[in-house]
Amino acid sequence: MIAMRIVVPVKQVPDLVEELELNSEGSDIDREFVKFVANEWDEQALEEALLIKEAVGAQVSVVAFDEPDVDQTLYTALARGADEAVKLTGAGDGWLSTAERSRLLAQWLSGQSYDMVITGVQASDDLDGQLAGTLGGLLGVPHASVVVGVEPGSGSVTVTQELAGGTVVRTEIATPCVLGMQTARQAPRYAPISRIRQAMSAGGLESVEAPGEATGPTDGIELLRLYPPEKAGRAEMISGDAPAVAERIVEILASKGLVKL
Amino acid sequence: MPVGGRKQPPVATELEQATVTSSLSGREWELPGMWNRMFESRVLSGYTTSELARISSLPGGESIEWCYGCGKCVPVCPVDLVGEYGPRKLHRKAQTGVNLLGDADLWMCTTCGNCLRVCPKEVDMIQIMPAAREAAVTDGIMPPELQDVFEKTFRQGNCLGENPRRRHAWTKGAGVPVRVLASDPRPVDVLFYVEDYWSYHPRGQQAAQAFARIADALGVDWAILGAEEKTLGDSQRTAGEKGLFEALMEDVVATLGKYSFNRIVTPDPHGFNALRKVYPTYGHNFDVLHYTQLLAPLIDRAEWAGSVEAKVTFHDPCYLGRHNGEYDAPRRLLAAIPGVELVEMSRCRENGYCCGGGGGGMWLDGFNSDRVTERLSERRVKEAAETGADILAVCCPYEVSRFEDAAKSTGNEHLKVLDIVELVDAAMFPR
Fold this sequence. Notes:
The complex is a heterodimer of chains A (261) and B (431). Chain A has helices at residues 40-56, 70-80, 98-110, 131-139, 193-202, 242-255, and strands spanning 4-9, 12-14, 36-38, 58-65, 84-89, 116-120, 143-152, 156-163, 167-174, 177-181, 205-209. By secondary structure, chain A is α/β, with parallel strands linked by helices. In chain A, strand 7 and strand 8 form a beta hairpin. In chain B, 35% of the residues lie in helices and 10% in strands. In chain B, the strands form 3 sheets. Chain B has a 4-stranded parallel β-sheet. A 4-stranded parallel β-sheet of chain B has the order 8-7-9-10, sandwiched between helices. Chain B has a two-stranded antiparallel sheet with strand order 1-2. In chain B, helix 16 (399-409) links the parallel strand 9 (391-394) and strand 10. In chain B, helix 15 (376-386) packs across helix 16. The longest helix of chain B is centred in the middle third of the chain and has 16 residues, at 202-217. Chain B is globular and about 75 Å long. Chains A and B meet through helix 5 of A and helix 6 and helix 10 of B.
């Protein structure tokens, strides 16, 4: 039997340990001095893929565009247990919208064999949450999002999703399919640095020309303004002795209708 | 004598006849309560020795096999004083087939080195623990809080996960100019390697600022790397991430290679240990001093505008004292400060009690809290308070926050915890 192949698309997002600054046009963050790290939901996707590999055997392929600091993400994926890491080059320098990302990935995937595509349900830099859905649409395969567990079957997978209000739903989905991962069944595993370094010195990254270039916004969405949240409201510092402070707190709560005097 | 912590009292029950079941092998022995019961035949070797063999086969783990079970290491082990632990106990566990790599005991050693000091067979836990931990880390087994620190260190170059670009933010409050080599790369005498806690921890930053004022006043020609500095990662190494240590070392050596300096001075005994003892094993040799060693010979030049009228006790950092033999430089600095009366704790110098921060312990207080009756830092603070001192002086960046927390949690708030450099600063530049 040919082992299942799982493709895990990952993307780079700004490391939020840094204070983000805007570029002079206010159209993007200043990308020059920001460090980039793997999108945390994509790491969940990889972990779930690796759990499936451990349970039933699978070939796990991680794919990413040539984004800043992406090599470290891909080598880390190999150190964690991915079998293959593909870097798609030449898609452009700036930020790739989800629509473009989806289109290019679909083109690349159409030349690949795969049983499942598992990716993060969203990314912190745009909160689109659309990659899995649009990718499924473009590839003409079923999709499920906000997945918290994947059990492979024969010709299908059973996925678990948590719905609002405390219900859990399990769905059987025919393969091939695209899944957007919310959380894997366990926290992403540690990649020992020695293993990342081994992967780096072995140079196991496969660089492949992306099947096209970004052509600018294609999704009918135009960015108007990017800016830090404007300060709304302010805190009131209450001074005085304890009874005075207590009286003022009661007054405020009463004025909001939270307590009745 | 003990000022804190407690051990489980032994349960003594006298029976004429008893059946004892081994909790390890499940084997049962009939034990009559007669004086000569030891002469009945018993199988003592019915254990698998594979676990011991596994540890001793690791590079660095060899000496665990040299143990002949005398147990001298146990009463000097700082962890055993507040729990149930010790090198000999670890050895016995491995001997009887316990998988140490999956055992919580693996993470409790602070690599303080007091066991090696007394061991007649030179069983070297300072080599064994990092080797065994490395094997566990490679298998993905480690406390989550440690994993978090490893990931932060790899990503940001500091254990706190702070912004690398803000590494020299502390210099703004120093009150004297601090030269950063990236913007002024002229040759310099002293490259000051600030390390993580003096760079980022608010209390550490105060010490770094004090150092800057003193170095300036004593005419030291010094500079820092600023945003280019990455941690030397010695505690990450002893906690089991040798690969991380080596990755950091490559970056550090490349950065240091860009500048011309005579010697490296660092306030962190762990970084000092890495540069002095570990880097040379990889062929990287630097002239390195702890900051107390830099300042002690210069302190006669100091002009004292004030004094510190206080009884002071001093905590020897394991990695400055036991690991690298420096006990005098910190004491020379303390003796030079007008007004300071130094009182020693009963455990000091070669037998100094560990603060609990070494070997990754700095980041494992949560993990260890279920396994010890009190933190090592809490016990140490009680020892310090027992001397009647007003101030507990330290010279390792891990200790200020550890001991300040411990002073609060043990009801010893009256005991001030200050780095020696802060005491010197207070006497030279009183406010």
